[in-house]
Amino acid sequence: MVAYGLLTGSQDPVALRSISVDVVVQGFVADVVSELRYQNEEENPVEVKFVFPMAEEAAVYAFEGLIGGTRIEAQIRKKEKAQEEYEDALIEGREAFLLEREENASDVFTCVLGNLPSDGEATLKLHYVQALAPEPDGAIRFVLPAVLNPRYVPHCSENKSVTTCIPRVPEGQLPYTLSLSATMKSSYGINRIESKCTLDPLRYITEDHTAAQVSLAEGHKFNQDVELLIYYNDVHKPSALVEAGKPGADPGSLMGDPVLLLTLYPSLPAPKPIPNDAGEFIFLLDRSGSMDCNTYSPRSRIQSAKETLLLLLKSLPLGCYFNIYGFGTDYESFYPQSVEYSQQTMSESLERLKKVKANLGGTEILKPLKTIYKLPCQEGHPRQLFVFTDGEVGNTEQVIAEVSRHRSSHRCFTFGIGQGASTSLINGMARAAGGSAEFITEKERMQTKALQSLKKALQPAVTGFSWNWDLPAGLEAVLVGSGPQVIFPGHRCLIYAQIHGQNQSSGSTEGSVVLQYTFQDETLEETMKFSLQVQESDRLPIHRLAAHALLQELEGAAEKDEEKKCLALETSLSSGVVCAQTAFVGVNIERGIPIQEPLLQREVPLEWCYPSKPRLFAKRTKRAAIATVKLESMELEAIKMCVKERDCVLQTVNSPTSEHYSEDDPHAIGFPSSDSESVPKKAESLLLTLISLQNANGSWLLNCGLASILGLAEADIMSKTPAQVAPNVWATVLAILWLHSHAKEQSNEWELLEMKALRWLWATEGLQLAECIKAGNVLLGTSVSLQDFGL
């Protein structure tokens, strides 16, 4: 089953004219104001609905409007109350606007502007703050999401997805524009800004490069996520920042007290050697129809995922256990339960992997998860779950709750594939089970990020946190929520603490905290000092983030805990941060004429991703009782045209000439690409072919397949074998030499399987490894050093 939305033409009236975004990034925190400008050029009043994605880490804390010269500040209410106020306002003929989060997906928001009169203009401002995460190279990544895929709703589910009825327009025909300007601040200095989008030149606004500004180049098409990669000069240095409480808020409350933000992004010691028999590895692969998409990449998502699984399987250590599940509307597994990793099971799995296709229908992840959790864990082998999905599900909270219930028995590593993947699902599953989340855009290599996560699964993380506070008399610090439980190498941690009490030491305005943690049985510590003389802030970004972190924790447990559900509601209302139970509503109370006829209902379109089935704008119950909306004949004709256009697209996609993956595809696992391809593409295919030839124990056989990759005749390779060296030892040395000389740029994808190969070489009796390396360099014309082999 595929989730559909209405495909429209660009001539349809759309009141949204432009989106203007202003971003201030300080350290790991982004404070964002998004301004939406509307203009109604129709003859009747309209109600405009805009459904858009937002990062799951974002805390929406304010919403305001300027309608007909009147400024209206929206109020946060319990969701049912907000919806009722909005409905009543429209019935009375008043202008009103409503902002709410989708109940089952914290990364999807709906903004509705109602009763905008003919020739009327309105500007809505959305304020949110977001915690940012580092990339593997240390860049701090800010993303403004553009793509919102329809969320698949499982069979027999009572949940409904707001995304399924969003109209879509062809590529390049969005009727509204986007502009973005960003200001970056860091006391350690800003090195550079990078983006896949075209930017105006970076402009430093301080001589010491601690502040800089950048903007999107004019004419940007909002058909892909806007990504900024910010490189600081000393990103690993810990920091502490205190923010004063909200004036007038109750002392002792989260908003009334000062809140401290500790940022920890440790540069950890080199890891110890990986154990040879660690873990049970379960790979859960999305095989729904949307995984066949290859909008921005020559490979489909499913093909990239299969190549990634090839690398993961080859990188597993001997003695571990593994299994592979595919899921869609239904699911299937390679084995009834996890099997021991051996040459036979690895070879069997790779043969089955070649035949895997994105042909299992919808995206129902809950059923395979429950099956996996019912199976007993392998004693002495910690369970590690790897989930690959484009994240289009409609029961996100149920999935996260299921993962959380089994958090004590496993870690969960998640991968969101493609733009539009559900950040709430991907981040929520990883957070619920102490793992990590990665997002792979269409132009990124999935293999790189998957192998990084496998390294984390094979290595211990930072644990055992403890705090030693040094505060003036009369003050104490209390963590907001449960605090961090684990930090993986390469990840940052934001820790929030509420500072209670009154400072009884008149001369002391400084505080400090010593944070201790354990990594591979070694105790490390960081000391952070901070000033208690803080300036007040209207936006209170640190307080909002602290409230959001607490809400995430409470909502994760609220499904079966009524007390925590009530606490989540109270936290949301007091902090102004929207959650699943609340919404913002604003009403223009200065004017209003009772409604005489139904409003024209308009939805702001998104760019088309894949063919869609039309659905109508859902009528709101209260107004439906007052007036029944009837479709005009021209509207019916428009829908018929959309259906016809959709069918044409479907026919084109399904035609025999369409480029889809098949088992004869030269890009299939283990097959080099054609001579017509570019050199980098050929090298990439050769790398996959070489990896596919590696044995489970890490060695290679000397055969025609390896000889072809090396570009030599098998007989010539045999004749150059050093004396008293086994053919498989010679072949393994040559394979490693090829990796270092021909695939150095992809070393982060093959270093684990190289480590396995080296371990096998070192364990081989009578091996003259140094002589083999020298002879191999001569044969291949390479210059790989002995140090690369650990000598």
Structure write-up:
The chain is an alpha+beta fold. The chain has four domains: 16-232 and 576-587, Immunoglobulin-like (Sandwich), CATH 2.60.40; 239-271 and 463-559, Immunoglobulin-like (Sandwich); 280-458, von Willebrand factor, type A domain (Rossmann fold); 679-789, no CATH class. It contains 17 helices and 34 strands. The strands form seven sheets. The protein has an eight-stranded mixed β-sheet. Strands 20, 21, 22, 23, 24, 25 and 26 form a seven-stranded mixed β-sheet that branches. It starts with 15 loop residues before the first strand and ends in an 11-residue tail after the last helix. 44% of the residues are buried.
Helix content: 25-40%
Strand order of the largest sheet: 5-4-9-2-1-13-16-15
Write down the overall geometry. Answer: globular
Helix-strand makeup class: alpha+beta
User: If classified by CATH, what would the architecture of the largest domain be?
Assistant: Sandwich
> Rg from C-alpha positions?
28 Å
Average pLDDT level:
80
* Count of folded domains: 4
CATH topology of the largest domain: Immunoglobulin-like
